[in-house]
Amino acid sequence: MTRKIYFTTPIYYVNAEPHIGHLYTTALADMLKRYYQLAGNNAYFQTGTDEHGEKIVQAADKLGITPKQFCDNISGKFRDAWDNININYDDFIRTTDARHKTYVQDILTRVQEAGDIYFDEYTGKYCVGCERYLTDTELVDGKCPDHQTAPKEVKEANYFFKMGKYQQQLIQHIEENPDWIRPERFKNEVLSFLKSPLEDLCISRPKTRLEWGIELPFDNKYVTYVWFDALLNYVSGLKETSNGKNLFDEYWQGCNHLIAKDILKTHAIYWPTMLMSAGIPLFNQLDVHGYWMIGESKMSKSLGNVIRPLSFDAAFGIENLRYFLFKEMKFGADSSFTYDLFVERYNSDLANGLGNLLARNAGLVAKNFGAIPAATDLTEAEKELADKAQKVVDAYRQNFESRQFAKSIEDVCGLISETDKYITLMEPWKMAKDENRKNELARVLRSGLEICRIAAVLLSPVMPKKCTEILAYLGETRPLDGSVSIEELAAFGAIAEGIEISKPPRFFPRIDEAALSSITAQMQAEAEAAAKAAQSREIEPIKEQIIIDDFAKVQLKVGKVVEAYPVEEAKKLIRLMVDVGEEKPRQVFAGIKSHYPQPEQLIGQNVIIVANLKPRKMKFGMSEGMVLAASGDDRLVAATVLGNPHPGDGVS
Ligand code: ME8
After folding, report:
1. pLDDT at 331 over 90
2. Number of domain units in the chain
3. What's the rounded Cα separation, in Å, for the pair 640 and 605?
4. pLDDT at residue 17 in the model
5. Is 117 helix (H, G, I), strand (E, B) or coil?
6. Which of 144, 202, 255, 452 is catalytic?
């Protein structure tokens, strides 16, 4: 029976742009979705952004824009990043979505009706970075160990969730389901935290202090605490997807959360107790990975050592990074990224490994046969190779399902180096010189290509685009969607014969180590510039949303330019006479001279003008409208409409 699995990533705070840490969890969900599909299951994947809370207000204040403007901007950057690097998410949720807000309020009502919410005065130490109160035992030298800042003392009356009430039930669940939190060390960490009495959770913020949040349904002077709001995304997004479906019954029971260790407590303690109180079955699995460091240091915007997915993609290819990240990080442990290490691994595993094996064999096939030769009887040497491949395939499912996918990647690497040895031993280049050894040559080269094909099948969740290209090149076009089993796809001997083989493209060109420092210096400069821009007002905020009635006030019309002159006395202005279907053309002054130094080129063009803009008296005459234009950085072009509209036609 097909399993239905629902992968989630944390919904990321919009106070930072996407970096390699966010990329890792998101690409992990993408890879697992692809693996589970390949293995014949049905997988669904949701990611998104977490937009309420004090942190966001502070960041927006710094830029002098509203929290919503701030969120629209950065949430869009996350989405763009994922879209541009082929992350196959099914839904993207924002906690400012109406569907989410309504759901949070429903659950708050439900939890309150269950008698699990009370009002009380509280004093605590709040870390804005973590967006939660820290206990004294969590502090190191009076500071939050993650953010290196002293939490602020907060004393106020608030609503509390009776989290402590569910402590025993939670402990029991963890003990009865030993794999519920993986790897084990994180399960142990949670159990050891649960040895002390579990305090109740403050779930509100008075609007006098923080307005940016979801209003409590039972007290409009308060908003919901950001974690109580954010965790519910995992359910609200299923209850109502962006295209209006309810997938809860279909996917919730297969829910597999993916997070890093920084948010273990909120996911392993707050979240399940909230679900218990709301009467929702618990999620199925919590998988916790370690932290990426850059060299020896934590990632930090101010250090400019943040690696941005899109710049990396442009410089080195995102799939090569995925390969590195998934192989390098042992699930649950911290790991370190450096460019040198990345290039070393890439060159040895992909350029010299898979890439070279493919190029060597395909090159000889192209030269000697022009197509993949037919199968011949295998000798002991190929049988041995086939056995090794079989072993890798046998361990593959188990490794992925226990999140030891790094092992499978290593296994594939091992298989490639075994095959390299086999090729070196067989010396097909010598066989190629002897007409009588054509059969042997066919057998060896076919086996070499076969291992490349198997490797590409097995690595397809890791490097989906690259592997699909390799498979297509080798004539393997069967779908990777589970309709053909992994075992069939990766069976030694399944490679088709007669597939034309031309000189292979360079799937993994070597990265020149000498050029590395200049590329990384440029990327670092970009990261620093982006960090600086984020600190200043250089981010252009997306304007506040308007409703249709606001837009309806603006009357846009098609106008045909009938005359156009530079205004000699003005540096920026040109004067246009525009026919908008009225008795006589309108005079419009537009500040676009630097982009249209010869304004007469506009004559005969259809432009769009704001027809009901109040006429403005200028030094050179009345301006009776405004011409729309598209602009960005140093570019500007007048906006037009396609086809043959008539002057005066409305634009809406
Ligand atoms: O915590 N190494 O959002 P966040 C590995 N909004 N993974 C990393 C990482 C690193 N150095 N840095 C970040 C929040 N991550 C909340 C979550 S969920 C209901 C609310 C990844 O933007 C990793 O997945 O701080 C980590 O758990 C997450 O980003 C934290 O993202």
Report:
1. yes
2. 3
3. 8
4. 85
5. strand
6. 144
Q: Is the pLDDT of residue 115 over 80?
A: yes
Is 301 one of the catalytic residues? yes
> What is the rounded (10 degree) CA torsion for 255, 256, 260, 265?
50
List residues bridging with 294 in a β-sheet. Answer: 297, 337
The answer to whether 62 and 22 have CB atoms below 8 angstroms apart is: no
Instruction: Specify whether 202 is catalytic.
Output: no
Amino acid at 344: E
* Nearest CA, atom 9, ligand 1: 21
Model confidence at 536: pLDDT above 70? no
Q: How far is residue 3's CA from residue 344's CA, in Å, rounded to a whole number?
A: 38
Q: How far apart are CA 577 and CA 521, in angstroms?
A: 51
Q: Atom of ligand 1 at shortest distance to CA of 16? A: 22
291 C-alpha to ligand 1 centroid (Å): 9
Q: What is the C-alpha to C-alpha distance for residues 358 and 385, in angstroms, rounded to an integer?
A: 16
Residue 460 has pLDDT above 50, yes or no: yes
Q: Considering the chain, what percentage of its residues have pLDDT values greater than 90?
A: 74
Same-domain pairing of 184 and 118: yes
- Specify the range with the lowest mean pLDDT, choosing from 161-170, 460-469, 552-561: 552-561
Q: Are residues 285 and 343 in the same domain?
A: no
The pTM of this model reads 0.82
The verdict on 559 and 470 lying in the same domain is no
Shared domain for 22 and 90, answered yes or no, is: yes
pLDDT tens digit string along 422-437? 999 999 999 999 999 9
CB 9, CB 310: distance < 8 Å? no
643 compared with 216, residue with greater pLDDT: 216
Amino acid present at 453 = R
The alpha carbon of 370 is separated from its chain's Cα centroid by a whole number of angstroms, namely: 41
Tokens representing residue 351 in the block: 């350029």
Domain presence at residue 535 = no
pLDDT for position 538: 45
CB atoms within 10 A of CB 61: 12
Out of 147, 383, 532, 646, pick the active-site residue: 147
Parallel, antiparallel, or unpaired: how do β-strands 292-294 and 335-337 relate?
Answer: parallel
Whether 552 contacts 566, CB under 8 Å: no
- Residue 432 near residue 366 (C-beta atoms within 8 A): no
- 50-64, 517-531, 581-595: lowest mean pLDDT where? 517-531
Q: Where are the alpha helices (DSSP H) in 232-355?
A: 233-239, 248-251, 264-265, 271-278, 309-316, 318-328, 339-345
Rounded to an integer, what distance in angstroms lies between the CA atom of residue 628 and that of residue 609? 6
Domain boundary at 489, 507, 523, which?
489
Domain match, 63 and 124 both = yes
Which tokens hold the place of 6? 């629902």
Q: Tell me whether residue 327 is in a domain.
A: no
The span from the CA of 50 to the CA of 96, in Å, is 8
Structure confidence at residue 593 as a pLDDT band (50, 70, 90): confident
Domain stops at, among 446, 463, 489: 489
Q: How far apart are CA 30 and CA 652, in angstroms?
A: 39
Give yes or no: 452 in active site.
no
Calpha distance 5→35 (Å, rounded): 11
The DSSP secondary-structure symbol of 381 reads H
What is the residue range of 601's domain?
Answer: 540-638
159, 27: one domain: yes
Assigned domain for 349 exists: yes
Of the residues 130, 413, 452, 467, only one is catalytic, namely 130
Q: Is 262 in the pocket of ligand 1 (CB under 6 A)?
A: yes
Examine the residue annotation and report whether 144 is marked as an active-site residue of this protein: yes
Mean pLDDT of the chain: 92
